Amino acid sequence: MRRTPIVLALLGALAVTGCSSSGGQSAQSAPAAGSAAAPAGASASFAVITHGGAGDSFWDVVKNGAEAAGKQYGVKVTYQGDGDPAKQSQLIDQAVSEKVDGIVVSMANPDALKEAIGKAVAAKIPVVTINSGADSSKAFGAITHVGQSEDVAGRGAGEQLKAAGVTKLLCVIHEAGNVGLDQRCKGAEQTLGGTVERLQVDVSNLADVTSKVTAKLQSDKQVNGVLALNPAVAIAARDAIKDSGSQAKLATFDLSGDVVSAIKDGEILFAVDQQQYLQGYLPITFLNLYKNNLNTVGGGLPVNTGPGFVTKDNAEQVAKLAEAGTR
């Protein structure tokens, strides 16, 4: 079988993440979360602009993936994250004014970013969207979207929770206006076969998250399942289940070291894994291929990085990779 440039690029990705005796890192390991990939004499410059702030365990892994790709291809990668869509738009405008060779952007609030992304496309800067906003990606002019179908992932979570005996589920939404989070809850509702209630919390105040989930579990004894949509919220929900004396079963979206440990200990049933390292690594790969060979990927459809599921069966293996900053 002939190996196309895309196949070769993806084989290179596997070489970075899979050839190691230290939990997924190779000699060309992912940079630390605070480092910048700016090799001397870089052949291209790519801006990664997400809605995840610094120090977030999920987005740190995305950043690691993008910077590892930049290091491999000898291109400059700058990463900036801000949960405020207005500030995110400003960062996109700044990247356009700097005439970067490509932009990677997550769209938790697509409508708020439409104008800024439109300016990038009008300036003939290729855009790859990641993580959120897949439904708007093509319409906004992006060359592809990299992430998971939140609806499909939500349905998968609902199926597993139903199999575990959950009949009334609390779906904890931690970011107001994030379309992907609502899609996760809707997907779970479609397959659970029971009742799904939403609880709005603020991810920046985890003590309050624990308090609100505790209060809900104490006031409604019929709630026998909790679905967190963020790893930090999952740990807060775990504490709430303990504090309330509830027997509710807990599942979450996305990984952190604490979540993996909780899965190993039987405190969390599973985590829906969208492999966020790929959401950083693959867009830089795709933009580099587009710049050098006009390759496009996906044929108008998203490139899915998930969903996968981390359970007690594979948590030990994933834990080692999470320690390396690639999961």
UniProtKB/TrEMBL annotation:
Subcellular location, principal: other
Boundaries of every Periplasmic binding protein domain copy: 47-288
GO cellular component: outer membrane-bounded periplasmic space
Keywords of this entry: Signal, Sugar transport, Transport
Range of residues in the leader sequence: 1-22
Keyword ATP-binding in record: no
InterPro entries on file: Bact_Solute-Bind_Prot2, Peripla_BP_I, SBP_2_dom
Compartment(s) of residence: Cell envelope
CDD domains hit by this protein: PBP1_ABC_sugar_binding-like
Example of a GO MF term: carbohydrate binding
One Pfam family this sequence matches: Peripla_BP_4
Domain of life, per lineage: Bacteria
Stated family: Belongs to the bacterial solute-binding protein 2 family.
Name used for this protein in its record: Simple sugar transport system substrate-binding protein
Organism the protein comes from: Nonomuraea jabiensis
